[in-house]
Amino acid sequence: MNLQGHEAAPIPARRRPTAARAYLLNQATVDDYRRTVTAGVDRVAGRVAGVDRPFTGVTPDRLAPAIGRIDLDRPLHDPAAALDELDSVYLRDAVWFHHPRYLAHLNCPVVIPALLGEAVLSAVNSSLDTWDQSAGGTLIERRLIDWTADRIGLGPTADGVFTSGGTQSNLQALLMAREEACATQPLPRADLLPKLRILASEAGHFSVQKSAKLLGLGRDSVVTVETDADRRMRPEALAREIERCQRAGLVVMAVVATAGTTDFGTIDPLPAIAEQCRAAGVWLHVDAAYGCGLLVSRTRRHLLDGIEQADSVTVDYHKSFFQPVSSSAVLVRDRRMLRHVTYHADYLNPARMVEQRIPNQVDKSLQTTRRFDALKLWLTLRIMGADALGELFDEVVDRAADAWALLSTDPRFEVVTRSQLSTVVFRYLPAERHLADDANLHAREALAASGAAVVAGTKVDGRHFLKFTLLNPETTIDDIAHVLDLVAAHAGRYVRARTAAEMALPVPAEVSVAEPCHVG
Ligand SMILES: *Cc1c(COP(=O)(O)O)cnc(C)c1O
């Protein structure tokens, strides 16, 4: 009987599978599933085996028409044909992070156990919002959160949740900090919001500013704290800013310390910052999106000392744990803080489920439907183990130190702050100093266009610099030396061409800013 009191209609006999239904994964299609996914894996494996440079240098102008021409309303009905097509519009020109001369951003080569996890999690397709959509997945995620919190040393009341990335982790941490500030301040919320301040260093991540905007804070809500010569937040400057805010009737809702700045790979002095925060009663968030790899290092874990005093921590396993995107988490010292993102829906996670102790992760998350990304880390720990991950990360940190040493004795270059992690920020320094910015910009573009190597660029004190982010243990110091030669060659030729132009001589035909330069 249904609600209206009618007899339920008899269930129709199972229909004959149609062509469309043959695409669904179920008992009848497991062979096709195996074949199709294996074909995709084979295609990627073939590409990986054949990659001889990190990038082909393809431009959006060249690729966009090919992708635009594909008629999405005319399916190929053939995985092999679709893979052929995909090869021509994506795989052939992809940026390959596993290549030893990909040295640009915080992208890691991925470990195979995590790829196994990726394949499993998307096929089973658990959604981690509620127990009744994931069962064991929920408990596996919880174990990994506890494991991470333990490694950080957050204590017995810690908790957290996997997120889509450091940006989301930072947002959630700052949301909780804002709610705590609102809960403890006597002012009405509307009056308080414009007075809230977040203190962070200039080297902190821009997701802090973005979060502030999303959290309805004012334009001036993120206050920059001075850094030392190594771009680490100065604790005395932090004390000064906290006091200045208090004198001005402002409320510091959080201090964001960075454990591994994106550009410089330096770690703010966490113990001293934690002490300032404790004294002032301010929420300490540690953004360890990058530096979290040290949690599994057997030789460098001490660099994170003080992180255990944080109120919240961001970790990006997809940065320094060699995990595929996405894999990230936000952790809190006091699990009650997660209540600030708890909402109940009758259809999903009614409040009574809390009393029944049904573990619904949606109660702790900004997301609802959510991937079982934790499985990748789980299989990584179960197959290769944490020490092996730490070894990989230690290796790239060592390599960055070697690269820094190499650069610091090379008269062609100027190198900045010595990283505590695996970045190296440097620039080509021509005798014609006024051309330094343009020469480095050109070198980076020319290098990417040639595809021989990919390096990043950034600005230091208003000047254009280049950056290596080393996350691939396969990158040797010879690779780095070779890339430096390429940079110097591109930059040098550019400088010569510009100097010639400035002297009203004809520009050598071999160099133009727009054209990629190919160097030996
Ligand atoms: C990368 C990074 C982030 C942002 O993380 P996503 O995973 O890219 O969203 C935040 N903070 C720091 C220090 C980072 O390096």
From TrEMBL:
CDD domains: DOPA_deC_like (cd06450)
Keywords: Decarboxylase, Lyase, Pyridoxal phosphate
GO molecular function: aromatic-L-amino-acid decarboxylase activity; pyridoxal phosphate binding
Needed cofactors: pyridoxal 5'-phosphate
The keyword Manganese is annotated on this UniProt entry: no
GO BP term (any one): amino acid metabolic process
GO cellular component terms, semicolon-separated: cytoplasm
Residues carrying N6-(pyridoxal phosphate)lysine: K319
Extent of the signal sequence: none
Family label: Belongs to the group II decarboxylase family.
Record's protein name: L-2,4-diaminobutyrate decarboxylase
Species of origin: Micromonospora pallida
